[in-house]
Structures are given as C-alpha cells and as structure tokens.
Write a structure and sequence with these properties.
Order of helices and strands: HHH
Low-confidence stretches: none
Number of strands: 0
Distance between the termini: 53 Å
Shape: flat
C-alpha cells in the first residue's frame, strides 16, 4: 500500500518499532551476533549512510509549502549534523 501525503502514520511507526524490537530479541537469543564479525565495517557504515540518505531524500518533499521559520531550522539542523563531527574533541 503506497503512503499517502497528509496521512498520519503513527500507527505504522509504532508497528515498525515493535517489529524491529521483536527481530532484535529473536536474533539476540539465537546468537546471530557472532556472525556479524564476518561483515566488514565499511559495509555496515555504507548501509547506514545509504539509509540516512534515503530518509533525508524522503523528507525533502515535506519542505514544500511550509512556514518560513522551518527553513532556518532545517539549515541549523544540517549545520549541526555536518559541522559537529568536524569540531575538534576536547582533550583531558
């Protein structure tokens, strides 16, 4: 079923969170975590980055016809997301 614009998807979100939790419990109890050592870190990082890009791109259409205050908040969020990792870390 395609997602419709303007439809509240909270029930889909709750169902997805519960299902993800059930999957994590089943995979944790069955010992699948031992198999994770065979997956290179670069593959995991690439997967998470691709997922983040897909989520970002799916939210871009939601920025059309919104109040003007939203745009500076989006710019601030992007500056935090991309600028914070580049800041030097505090030394002890």
């Amino acid at each position: 079923m395609p997602v419709q614009r303007g439809v509240d998807g909270v029930h889909y979100f709750v169902a997805a969170v519960i299902l993800a939790g059930v999957f994590q419990i089943i995979l944790g109890v069955s010992g699948v975590a031992k198999l994770m050592r065979f997956i290179p870190r670069s593959v995991m990082v690439g997967f998470v980055n691709a997922l983040a890009i897909l989520i970002l791109m799916s939210q871009v259409p939601e920025l059309i016809n919104v109040p003007c205050l939203v745009y500076p908040l989006v710019a601030l969020a992007l500056m935090i997301a991309f600028g914070l990792p580049k800041m030097p870390k505090a030394t002890d």
